[in-house]
């Protein structure tokens, strides 16, 4: 692997974890180093770090908190 690709991967622990779980990216980056931007997009999607996924995660957490609050109100009324 080219030194700049190696440095690219070592700069972020998530990149190393992603490439270990998806070895086909090791081959893609070794053959065409210009795929680093695409690699980062795939990695963020895989780990749920895209803006849409983060908003969905916060929305799910808010629904859970709302449900717990409603449950607590019902328990308090009884």
TrEMBL record:
UniProt superkingdom: Bacteria
InterPro entries (alphabetical): YlbE
Name assigned to this protein: YlbE-like protein
Species this chain originates from: Thalassobacillus cyri
């Amino acid at each position: 692997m080219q030194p700049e690709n190696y440095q690219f991967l070592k700069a972020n622990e998530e990149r190393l974890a992603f490439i270990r779980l998806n070895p086909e990216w090791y081959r893609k980056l070794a053959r065409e180093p210009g795929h680093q931007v695409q690699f980062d997009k795939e990695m963020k999607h895989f780990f749920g770090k895209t803006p849409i996924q983060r908003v969905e995660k916060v929305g799910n957490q808010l629904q859970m908190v709302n449900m717990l609050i409603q449950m607590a109100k019902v328990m308090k009324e009884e």
